[in-house]
Design a protein that fits this description.
The complex is a heterodimer. By secondary structure, chain A is of the alpha/beta class. Chain A contains twelve helices and twelve strands. In chain A, the strands form three sheets. A seven-stranded mixed beta sheet of chain A has the order 2-8-7-6-5-3-4, sandwiched between helices. Chain A has a three-stranded antiparallel beta sheet with strand order 9-10-12. A two-stranded parallel ribbon of chain A has the order 1-11. The radius of gyration of chain A is 21 Å and the shape is globular. The model of chain A has no long low-confidence stretch (mean pLDDT 95). Chain B has 14 helices and twelve strands. Chain B is α/β, with parallel strands linked by helices. About 1% of the residues of chain B have low confidence. Chain B has two domains: 132 residues, Aspartate Aminotransferase, domain 1, CATH 3.90.1150.10; 240 residues, Type I PLP-dependent aspartate aminotransferase-like (Major domain) (Aspartate Aminotransferase, domain 2, 3-Layer(aba) Sandwich). The chains are: A alpha/beta, B alpha/beta.
């Protein structure tokens, strides 16, 4: 049996997604900028997908632009906003547990004489809104906080932060602090409503939601100014040049549609699967540790859990599980080749032993109870064996 | 109604073989190449194979010189901004031409406006050709990059890149070429050309949209424009678009395997179309170089007929063509390429670009030659500026 439990790294494309992409690849292959019928048909596909993404977020379709993925969305949002507001100030706030595409973009801006405050998190991985309140300055121009952490699955208090920033704006009449949210791990997993949550700009990615790789989107509140990061033909209202990736966009639209349809059911299903997997591991492997939390009452997202087996190496665990057909990861795929300790777990103040023994298990709506029972059995047996080996 | 797609310069359909590998890497081998498990390893292997295929198509010595991007526009942006910023200490001067794609022109303008670079926009002659001598003249001790396209996307003129590269090399200046329109149509070999950077795009060579590549010669420094994970050896962050990348790799392989027959086929059709139009419609001018042009490019200015009206009428008859580059087709401005070539605004507005593809046939061409003269005649009858007397030839256009 093969059980793929690394859905935060990437997901299998849904059949419906492949279908709409096949059509766009082979039949509706026009360039949306072309004036003839082939172009117009392609443009329609793009429009429909824009609507599908907008519907999930409860925003107007013209506020959505397509990018090549979550990384580009984060780069465009952060650099685009920072550069557009340079004259108002050069102070930026983010957290210590962001995705590398956010953290490294901020590091790049630091080279460009911006000042960045990296907020700490508690032992569950959460940013404290009071810390944010204290970090705000007269010259703060942007705050970027992720919605769901990709390594531990904790939900950050973005609505509260949005509220704080709304108040802050009132005090500094008009000189607004822009709020960007990396929602790559939360989109269609839990509700994300930029208008209600006070979010100005929000990144999403398709391949985390059973859509294709190489495509993502950015929500940009009406009236928010961004300096484009790609110059060229002026597509996407001049904010993102380059021929639209029509098949990818079609795939993202379909994935968003399916995701919205199934969101509530998938969430309760994945929470149940998570319990079903974690409970036997925690009860039968005495040294195992749950990192962050588990259920919605702990402020967790449905699809991610992080477990640690102190004394073992996460990498060794991952490989041993793979031998038995269970596919998990040590943390973010994007840094899994870096061989550094997880910056997220370190920021949570976990002991080195706990950090080194951590694995991330991430679910999809397609996982079955049978798969989970198999995986739980494999994990318990493998970990017990590894512990006995390493003790001996 | 017959359907004839003559807009391959805007985009191409994907090869069935390409579509097949794309599906496979979305459903069966869907892993993230950065994952260490077997799903990840399979995806990684596929990406590296595609890298070799692209390297082979353009004669790159080492596959590691290929960086995958989201398309031609990103490749151009990365090349120009990446080199300009990395060599900033050496100088702040860039040389390009007036007829580049907007991905190049607007990137140069951005560097001028926002980052204090100076850019020389070289003129072209009546056929759209850059004079290598002008490149030599323009190079100063501040010059860090020469970026000239391999072949023009609107008029198809093929630039003397090898000579330009030789001149730039002698003076120690890096050379980038936007080869988006040329790759897969004519032999493009980075070693023979002597260029340091070269952009290409998937969807112009029967590969997918949303993927492209930048060739970066070993030893060339490049400041990344996208920050994040350590992908593409720190030159381009973001989870690799695996299906797109394997699609591009497969397309590259197919183009390499069929290059000669493809080129030959296109030239025959192209010349049949050009000759047919020049013979069948009075007051027509062929834009671009008569021989040093892309095998698939036909660009004509038809006096007293407005380009957009021709397009719409052709579309009604099932023929998809364009009036210029698709990226600017929404605008009312005349083509910057035709204007730089010295065409009057009126002739620039009467331009028609037809770009052929591998699946076009002689029957397609004959159909166009049957339909187009009728359309032109009808439009000219309605035109207030068309001379009533047809024998009054506009030889001075």
């Amino acid at each position: 049996m093969k059980v793929y439990l690394d859905n935060s790294a990437t997901t299998r494309a849904a059949d419906e997604v492949v279908e709409v992409m096949a059509d766009a690849l082979q039949y509706q292959y026009g360039n949306p900028s072309s004036l003839h019928r082939m172009g117009i048909e392609a443009e329609k596909i793009v429009t429909r997908s824009r609507e599908a993404v907008a519907r999930v977020l409860g925003v107007r379709p013209e506020c959505i632009i397509f990018t090549s993925g979550g990384t580009e969305s984060n780069n465009l949002a952060i650099k685009g906003i920072a550069r557009a507001k340079k004259r108002e100030g050069k102070h930026l706030i983010t957290s210590a547990v962001e995705h590398p595409s956010v953290l490294n973009t901020f590091r790049e801006l630091e080279e460009d004489s911006y000042q960045v405050t990296y907020l700490d998190v508690d032992r569950r991985g959460r940013v404290n809104p009071d810390d944010l309140r204290r970090a705000l300055r007269d010259d703060t121009i942007m705050v970027s906080i992720m919605h769901v952490n990709n390594e531990v699955g904790v939900v950050e208090p973005v609505a509260e932060i949005g509220e704080i920033l709304r108040h802050h704006r009132k005090h500094y009449s008009g000189r607004g602090v822009v709020f960007h949210v990396d929602a790559v791990q939360s989109f269609v997993k839990i509700p994300v409503q930029p208008l209600k949550m006070g979010i100005d700009c929000l990144s999403i990615s398709a391949h985390k939601i059973h859509g294709p790789k190489g495509i993502g989107a950015l929500y940009i509140r009406k009236g928010l100014r961004l300096v484009p990061q790609l110059a060229g033909g002026g597509q996407e209202k001049g904010l993102r040049s380059g021929t639209e990736n029509v098949p990818g966009i079609a795939g993202l639209g379909m994935a968003a549609f399916l995701g919205l349809e199934t969101m509530d059911e998938a969430a309760s299903r994945m929470f149940a699967l998570k319990d079903r997997l974690v409970e036997p591991v925690l009860s039968r492997v005495p040294r195992s540790r749950l990192i962050g939390g588990l259920g919605p009452e702990d402020g967790m997202a449905p699809h991610i859990v992080n477990l640690s087996f102190p004394g073992l190496k996460g990498e060794v665990v991952v490989h041993a599980l793979e031998e038995q057909g269970v596919y998990v990861s040590t943390g973010s795929a994007c840094s899994s080749r870096g061989h550094d300790r997880s910056h997220v777990l370190v920021a949570m103040g976990l002991e080195p032993e706990v950090v080194d023994g951590a694995i991330r298990i991430s679910f999809s709506r397609e996982n079955t109870r049978k798969e989970i029972d198999y995986a739980a059995g494999v994990i318990v047996a493998t970990i017990e064996e590894l512990y006995s080996l390493y003790r001996g | 109604m017959r359907k004839v797609y003559l807009d391959h310069g805007a985009t191409t359909p994907v090869d069935p073989e390409v579509a097949h590998v794309i599906y496979r890497y979305m459903v069966d081998e869907f892993g993230n190449p950065s994952s260490v498990h077997q799903f990840g390893r399979a995806a990684r292997k596929a990406v590296e194979k595609a890298r070799e295929q692209v390297a082979d198509l353009i004669g790159a010595a080492d596959p590691s010189e290929i960086v995958f991007t989201s398309g031609g526009t990103e490749a151009d942006n990365l090349a120009i901004k990446g080199v300009a910023r990395a060599y900033r200490k050496k100088g702040n001067h860039i040389i390009t031409s007036a007829v580049e794609h907007h991905a190049v022109l607007h990137t140069c303008e951005y560097l001028e406006e926002k980052e204090g670079f100076k850019v020389t926009y070289l003129p072209v002659d009546g056929s759209g050709m850059v004079d290598p001598e002008d490149v030599a003249q323009a190079i100063t001790d501040q010059t860090v990059l020469v970026t000239i396209m391999f072949a023009n996307n609107e008029v198809g003129t093929i630039q003397p890149i090898a000579e330009i590269a030789r001149i730039a090399k002698e003076k120690g200046v890096l050379v980038h070429t936007d080869a988006v329109q040329a790759v897969g149509q004519v032999p493009v070999d980075v070693e023979r050309l002597g260029v340091d950077l070269l952009s290409l795009s998937g969807h112009k060579i029967y590969g997918p949209k949303g993927v492209g590549a930048l060739y970066v010669r070993k030893g060339t420094r490049l400041e990344p424009t996208m920050h994040g994970g350590a992908h593409e050896k720190h030159r381009r962050a973001g989870t690799e678009g695996v299906p797109g990348i394997v699609g591009l790799g497969t397309a590259a392989q197919l183009r390499k395997d069929h290059l000669d027959e493809y080129t030959e086929h296109l030239i025959v059709l192209r010349d049949r179309l050009i000759d047919g139009i020049l013979d069948g419609i009075p007051d027509v001018k062929l834009n671009g170089h008569p021989t040093k042009r892309l095998p698939n490019n036909v660009n004509v200015s038809i006096a007293y007929a407005e380009g957009e009206s021709m397009l719409l009428n052709m579309d009604l008859e099932g023929i998809a063509a364009s009036s210029g580059s698709a990226c600017t087709s929404g605008s009312l401005e005349p083509s910057h390429v035709l204007v730089a070539m010295g065409l009057s605004h009126e002739l620039a507005h009467g331009s028609l670009r037809m770009t052929l593809g591998k699946d076009n046939t002689e029957e397609d061409i004959d159909y166009v030659l049957e339909v187009l003269p009728r359309i032109v005649e009808r439009l000219r009858k309605m035109s207030p500026i068309a001379p009533a007397q047809r024998e009054e030839k506009v030889s001075n256009v």
